[in-house]
Amino acid sequence: MTADLPDRIDIDPQVCFGKPRVKGTRIWVGLVLGLMADGMTTAEIFEQYAQLTEADLRAWLNYGARLAVGEGSPTP
Known about the structure:
The structure is a single chain. This protein is mainly α. The chain has a single domain (5-68), classed as Arc Repressor Mutant, subunit A. It has helices at residues 5-8, 29-37, 42-48, 54-68, and strands spanning 9-10, 21-22. A two-stranded antiparallel ribbon has the order 1-2. α2 packs across α4 (54-68). It is globular. The mean pLDDT is 85.
């Protein structure tokens, strides 16, 4: 469940206030998960954020799942 995290998710205190984000972007994980929770489809997300990939999506869901099962704040 953790294979994609180091390659896809990054935490840098100097970028996006230290929020977990898609590596190399300013798109934080919580933003995208929130959009999905609000009903935005993955197709709409990919349309709005064309630089994102399916692997990024799997990494976000993985990250959220780790938090949900009580693994604390997983470090990518």
